Amino acid sequence: MKIVFAVSERPFVRDVDFVGNKAEDRDSLQDKIDVKLGSVYNPVDVQRAVEKLRDFYEDEGYFEVQITPTVEKFADSDVKLIFNIVEGRQMTIEAIQFRGNKGLRDDQLKEAMETKERQYFIMRGKVQRQRLELDIDRLIGVYNDNGCIQARVESHDVAVDRERARVTITVVVVEGPQFRVGDVKMTGVTLLPEREVDRQIRLKTGDVFSVSRVRDSVAGILNLYSTIGRASADVNAKRDQLPAFNQINLTFEITEGPEVYVERINISGNVRSEDKILRRELPLHEGDLYTLQNKERARQRLVNLGYFETVNVDTQPGSDKTRIIVNIVVVERATGLFSIGGGYSSVDSLVGTIDLAQRNFLGRGWEVAIRIRAGVERRSRGPSALPTPGSSTARCPAASTYTRAFATTRTTRTTPPASISG
């Protein structure tokens, strides 16, 4: 008995094309689907791609989009996949409505959202689902900063009026009670006066509780300790809720930690500028005590060089709690200058100027400038003698004309002085 299995291989996708897309380019659509060139053709994958494309368009406010896939076969059985797209109209937001909000007004909640209503031709009010999801988190954040730490968004609905191409967004919130600050304490302070640390706390007894102000208080205390070389300090803002009184007692538990020294300084992004030119501008070096002031001074000195568009200085933990790594990321800017000019004087003279300058020549911090000037001048001499008595004319020699061309070159080499750390 002989059993023969007859199989037919699935074709490969040789090409993927999009037809009818106007609002979105081909690359953006291709990135949204998993069907790629050279992959095995599978109708299930194609249907998933259609769903992803539809979701993408709806996220951009095109709720009328229609997507139809077609398949064209080549002679060798490979296929070309075509997505035919009818985008339809982009829906705009006519109104954003809130339900259940009592402590905060509609305009306060709308102000916190990135999603905006349509306002004539100034704001189109485009619907984007991803942005709307982030707005839900922003609304909860607004409530948390107004004492409503139990607030939540129960639901949000997008109602589409296809006849008018308008969308109404309805957000249902549950605010919960508003909490105020009770007792405010701090522990673990030994190296600094408690009054100095207390100034960094943004909340006092009786204030409306705010999550952002607690976060700012923690950042302020950490920055204060960084000024004395204690970058390893840690602050835990402990909250003790008293639901019966709608109060929250705060305790800032401070661990001052040991002094922190610079283990390594990494500089990146300097394509033209030499590393040593930048390092000599830094007020902190490897092995130095790390302080917040020196970090800010390092950034400002690099900015003052004028070589960079942006300068970012951040840190990461070192090999142990007493070590820290400083990372400096720069984006260089063009430091060259080229200008050309010319003029014409009232005495019939011409002059032209070409200026070339480079503020960071060869990446070594040298300033080099070259100026080339060229001019043409014409002069005429008047009569050499007055008419003599009895004569009818006076001789006037022919006007003489001469041309003078000149060029000057100026080159300067300046090296920024080495910085003195302090």
Q: Span between N and C termini?
A: 94 Å
Strand order of the largest sheet: 1-3-2
Give the SSE string: EHHEEEHHEEEHHEEEHHEEEEE
Low-confidence stretches: 378-422
Largest sheet: 3 strands, mixed
> Which secondary-structure class do the elements indicate?
alpha/beta
On the 0 to 100 scale, the average pLDDT is: 83
Number of helices: 8
Query: Percent range for helical residues?
Result: 10-25%
**Rg from C-alpha positions?**
37 Å
Give the DSSP E fraction (strand runs of 2 or more residues). 25-35%
Write down how many β-strands occur, each being a DSSP E stretch of 2 or more residues. Answer: 15
Shape field: extended
Task: Describe the overall structure.
By secondary structure, the protein is α/β, with parallel strands linked by helices. 20% of the residues lie in helices and 33% in strands. The protein is built from eight helices and 15 strands. It has helices spanning 26-32, 43-59, 106-112, 129-144, 194-198, 211-226, 275-279, 292-304; strands at 13-19, 66-73, 79-86, 92-99, 152-161, 166-174, 180-187, 234-242, 247-255, 261-268, 308-317, 323-332, 336-344, 349-361, 366-377. The strands form five sheets. It has a three-stranded mixed β-sheet, covered by helices on one side. Strand 11 and strand 12 (323-332) form a beta hairpin. It is extended. The N and C termini lie far apart (94 Å). Mean pLDDT is 83; it is low at 378-422.
